[in-house]
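Write out C-alpha cells for non-reducing end alpha-L-arabinofuranosidase.
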Amino acid sequence: MTTFTRISEADTPTISVHAERKISKINPNIYSGFTEHMGRCIYGGIYDPGNPLSDEHGFRKDVLEALRELNIPVVRYPGGNFCATYHWLDGVGPKDQRPSRPELAWQGVETNQFGTDEFLKWCEVLGTEPYFALNFGTDTAMGWVEYCNGTGNTYYANMRRKNGRQEPYNVKYWALGNETWGPWQVEQMTKEAYAAKAIQWAKALKLLDPSIVLILCGETGASSWDYYTLTRCILPANSPLSTSAQALIDMHSIHMYTASTCHVKNATAPLAAERAIELASSLIDLAMIENNVPPEQARPTICFDEWNVWDPMRAVGSEGAEESYTLSDALAVGIWLNVFVRQSKDVGMACIAQSVNVISPLMTTKEGIVKQTTWWPLWLFSRYMRGWTIGAHVSCGAYDGATEPKWLRAVKDTPWLDVSATIGDDGWANVIVVNVHEQRDFETKVEGVNADEVQVFTVTGEDVTVTNMKGENKVGVVQSVWNGKGLYTFPKHSLTMMRWSTQ
C-alpha cells in the first residue's frame, strides 16, 4: 500500500520505499486477459485461418508470441455483452454444421467457427487458464460445465469425447452472467431477480463440480446492486439457502472503464477504480458480518474482469471498438495497474479488456502486429511487478482541478506522482512512478534504495498525444542505470520503473 502526504509545489518530493514491509501477496491473476466475440478480437485477431502468419489451428502465431511476453495467467471468454445470447452448443462439433446466428450485443452475425474447443485449445497453446462467462438468461450453464469438466458417462461429457477431446478441460473459473444490471443487456434483470437466480445456479453448478470458482456479477463496486447482491449471496456454507458444504460465491466481479479528452483527467481517472475496490471490499466485509459467515470460510475477493481506457464515442462498440491509444492513455494504464498492485489484498483477478484489436494494446494487420502505447506499461508490470506489495510513502504536490468522473475529486487525492512498489521472491524491489504532469519534471528524493546500481525503465514521448499507430511507433521502453544517489528526475508525462536487488 502506498500512502500520500501533500506538500507545497515548491518543495522537493520524496518517495520512501520500505522493502522489508510486505503488505499483501499479489495474485498473478491481476495480469489476466479478455477475449470477446466483438469486432476483430476473435476473427482476424487470435483466429485467422488461411493467413500465412497462422498455425495449423488457424491461430495467429505472432499474436501468441506477443501475448506470451505478458505471461497471462487467465483469459476470459466469450464476453462481455456477447455472452447474453450466446448458446455454447452452436460453437461445438463439425464446423460445417455450426449455425450462423444474429449477434445482438454488437449488431453482427456470429458464424460460430470459433467456439469452446477452439478457445480451450488456444489457451493450451498460449499456456493460460480459461475463464468462461455464462449466459445467464437464455441458455443452460449445467451442460457447458459438464461438457468442459465432466468425467462420467454422461451426455455432454460424451459429446466432448465425440468432438475429439477425451480428457476433461477442467475449466476452473465461471462467471454468473455479465453486467446483468445494464439496460444494454438482453439478460437484464433487477438486483432482486439476479440474486435469487445466482444462488440457484451457484448451488447447482457446485453440486455438478465442487472444484469450480464462481464469480458473482457486480456493477462498479460502489452501487446498490453490489450491496444487495453481496448481502444476499455471500452466505455461510450449509446455510438454509445454500445447503452446500462449501461457500457458493468465491469472487465478486466489478467493471469500469475510464477516459477523458483532458490529459490529467484521463491519467488520474483510474483512481476512481481504486475507491470502488475499497468500497466493494467494505461491502464484502459487511455481507460476511450481517450473514454471520464464520471466519474459517474463505473471504471472497474482487474480480475486476473488465478494465481499460475506453471512450465509446471515439471507439464505437458496434464498429469494432478499435482505439488508437496515446501516451496519455499509456500513463492511465500505468495508474490502473498501480491501483491493482496497491489493492492486492482484495483483488484476486483483473482482466484487461481486451487482449487483441478491440480496445487493446495489441493490434493485428494482415502482415503483422502493432504494440500500442498501452502495451508497454502492461509489459513492464506483468514482467516485474509480482510477488508482494510493499510499503511506500509519497510526499509531493497534487492536481487540484476537475476530475473524470466528477465524484473522484471529493473522495480521492490526485498526486502528481502516482506510485506502487513490490518485492519479488528473488529479492528484487520494484517501484513504478507515473508523473502525470504535462509540463513539469520532478527532481525527487528516493529513500530506501540500498544498491549502487538501479535498473531504470522509462516510458514517455514528445507529448501526451503521440501514438504507435500508422507506423509512428513513438512510445516504447528506454532502459538506463542510476547509481541510487542524490535526487532522481522523473520526466514530465512519463512512467518510470526502478528496480534493484535488496540482497
